[in-house]
Amino acid sequence: MIEFQNVSFSYDGERPVVENLSFTIENGESVGLIGANGAGKSTIMKLLLGLLSGQGQILVDGLTVNKQNLSAIRQKIGFVLQDSDNQMFMPTVYEDMIFGPRNYGLSKEETERRVDAVLNRLGLTALKHRYNHKISGGEKRMAAIATILTMEPETILMDEPSTALDPVNRRTVINTINTLPQTKLVASHDLDMILDTCQRVILLSRGKIVADGPADHILRDQALLEANRMELPFCLQGRR
């Protein structure tokens, strides 16, 4: 379970990027985090991972997010970054996929099993030994997702997971998200994807929660979305 208790954070020490946030995400929930640029979506994920430190308290399975608990917390959470170039730092896709499991003490045999299973699930077996600098942006995005799935974390954070994906890979990511049993927090401007993958939505505006509830209800509220610089999902536009 994830808990934010009166959490605030500011990059410049003056204007808060997130302000007095309180919410809970239960085990197994799939939650969409939406809002216009600068609403605080990426900041929330970085706070949750301990990459940033603010005021208030954040708990992951009862552990306070602080320096003493970071190692244990980061073994529970996988983070798909918005920019895959910041995540894929080894020469090949395979080397990136084995880096985390092997460093956490997983055997070579179990690591290989996980790598092959994830690549098969995502239809990426052809990328296994490809060099990261020689694959497309969309392929790198898929490989970054595969790298996190190989870790089998209890919670998965995804920051704009559909960026740079063609329609086929986008649908693969959606289908994959829907089959994952883990707790999921998905930040995205792709509201159609959020509607397809998340049962609950948290809508942010200027660092504050303005709505928190069923995805189908919030994402159909045109007035609410437009008041917070967003639009209806494409699949709902033109419908009454």
Strand order of the largest sheet: 6-7-8-3-9-10
Biggest pleated sheet? 6 strands, mixed
Question: In terms of structural class, how would the helical and strand content be classed?
Answer: alpha/beta
Sequence of secondary-structure elements: EEEHEEHEHHHEHEHEEHH
Pick out the low-confidence regions: none
Number of E-type strands = 10
Please report the number of helical segments: 9
Q: C-alpha Rg, in Å? A: 18 Å
Mean pLDDT: 92
Helix content percent band:
25-40%
**Beta strand %:** 15-25%
What would your notes on this structure say?
The protein has 240 residues and is of the alpha/beta class. It contains nine helices and ten strands. The chain has helices spanning 41-48, 70-76, 93-103, 108-122, 137-151, 167-179, 191-197, 215-218, 222-227, and strands at residues 2-9, 18-25, 30-34, 55-60, 63-64, 77-80, 155-159, 183-187, 200-205, 208-214. It has a six-stranded mixed sheet, sandwiched between helices. Strands 2-1-4-5 form a four-stranded antiparallel sheet, with helices on one face. A hairpin with an 8-residue loop joins strand 1 and strand 2. Helix 3 crosses helix 4, helix 3 (93-103) runs parallel beside helix 5 (137-151) and helix 4 (108-122) crosses helix 5 (137-151). The mean pLDDT is 92.
What's the topology here?
Elements: E1 2-9, E2 18-25, E3 30-34, H1 41-48, E4 55-60, E5 63-64, H2 70-76, E6 77-80, H3 93-103, H4 108-122, H5 137-151, E7 155-159, H6 167-179, E8 183-187, H7 191-197, E9 200-205, E10 208-214, H8 215-218, H9 222-227
Parallel strand pairs: 3-8, 3-9, 6-7, 7-8
Antiparallel strand pairs: 1-2, 1-4, 4-5, 9-10
Helix pairs in contact: 3-4, 3-5, 4-5
